[in-house]
Design brief:
Layout (H helix, E strand, L loop, with lengths): L20 H22 L9 H14 L2 H13 L14 H13 L1
Helix pairs in contact: 1-2, 1-3
Length: 108
């Protein structure tokens, strides 16, 4: 009778896991948005009365001036374990692919 071998997952220090670029971008944008809102509140503006488009423009300007937010965001993403997920291997699974499979099975 064959016996199964127990394998433990490899340590994260040994395997390479790239940090998600989108996670870094989102974290940097959130930090910039928080700073912009704090600055606007300090100027006496009520956030409920500020259009989101205006906030987004100021966030983009703030990010352009404070590139160090990306470095901080990368470190934070690493601490939080926001790594890229491995790419899916095998056939794509989605509504269109499943529909194609159903049509093929019905036509047989």
């Amino acid at each position: 009778m064959a016996q199964a071998t127990i394998s433990l997952p490899q340590s994260t220090f040994v395997t390479f896991q790239p940090i998600s670029a989108s996670a870094v971008h989102v974290l940097a944008r959130l930090a910039a948005k928080k700073a912009v809102k704090e600055q606007m509140r300090a100027d006496g503006r009520r956030m409920m009365l500020v259009p989101p488009a205006e906030i987004n423009v100021k966030v983009a300007e703030y990010l352009a001036l404070h590139q160090e937010l990306y470095v901080e965001a990368r470190e934070r993403a690493h601490r939080l374990g926001m790594f890229d997920k491995p790419k899916q291997k095998g056939p794509p699974i989605g509504p269109f692919y499943l529909t194609k499979l159903m049509i093929e099975s019905w036509s047989k």
